[in-house]
Amino acid sequence: MALNDRQEAFAALVSEAAACRRCEAMCGRSAVLSARNGRVGARVMFVGEAPGRQGGDRTRVPFSGDQSGRNFSRYIASIGLARGDLFITNSALCNPRTETGANRRPTRLEVSNCSDFLRRQVETIDPTVVVTLGAVALEALRAVEYHPFTLKENVGQVQNWRGRLLVPLYHPSPQVLASHRREPQQLEDYRSVARALALTRRRPDVKR
């Protein structure tokens, strides 16, 4: 698909996501999907869990405006990437929250309701490398096309997926850093993204 066609397809997808009312608990919220997510044709796509209330839901830019976003920016900078190089999205495009207003994990149904949007984003952006941030994102990608990978077993590994390279990483939230994956480990994991990008330049079987 030519770049102009992909840009038109993405604009249509943004409009469709804005009008979506599939999730009853999130009908009053707006999908975080626009040109601010990144560049159509970006070589790297990052997929997170869902926009945070003080992060992407407020700023309208995934992984920005909160500590998770600041951590993410630091980690991509450590391998020489800037947000302008990327496309960033989430498994659930709207912010899920509890009755008290706190962030919560999206339900399986909410992620399933967004799975067609995720599939079409992958097809439209057409990245060479897809990076999942957390177990929810990795599971959501399985609904786009099956893979056998788990975060625990495959974190930081470069895997083949749908003619692209897939790198499962942990989420950059403060809670994950405190309980599952400390910053030195996260920084080491991000080097796998750089390795994946280097591989795409040498392997004819991977999309460029």
General description of the model:
The chain has 208 residues and is an alpha/beta fold. It has a single domain (3-23, 30-200), classed as Uracil-DNA Glycosylase, subunit E (3-Layer(aba) Sandwich), CATH 3.40.470.10. It is 42% helix and 12% strand. It is built from nine helices and five strands; from the N terminus they run αβααβααβααββαα. The protein has a five-stranded mixed sheet with strand order 2-1-3-5-4, with helices on both faces. Strand 4 (159-161) and strand 5 (164-169) form a beta hairpin. The chain is globular.
As laid out across the biggest beta sheet, the strand order is 2-1-3-5-4
Secondary-structure arrangement, i.e. CATH architecture: 3-Layer(aba) Sandwich
Number of domains: 1
State the end-to-end CA separation.
13 Å
The CATH topology assignment is Uracil-DNA Glycosylase, subunit E
Task: Report the CATH C-level class.
Answer: Alpha Beta
Q: State Rg.
A: 16 Å
CATH homologous superfamily assignment: Uracil-DNA glycosylase-like domain
Order of helices and strands: HEHHEHHEHHEEHH
Q: What's the shape?
A: globular
User: Which residues sit in consecutive blocks of at least 5 with pLDDT less than 50?
Assistant: none
- The chain-level mean pLDDT equals 93
**Helix fraction?**
40-55%
Describe the sheet with the most strands. 5 strands, mixed
Helix count equals 9
Structural class call reads alpha/beta
What is the β-strand count?
5
Report the sheet-strand fraction.
Answer: 5-15%
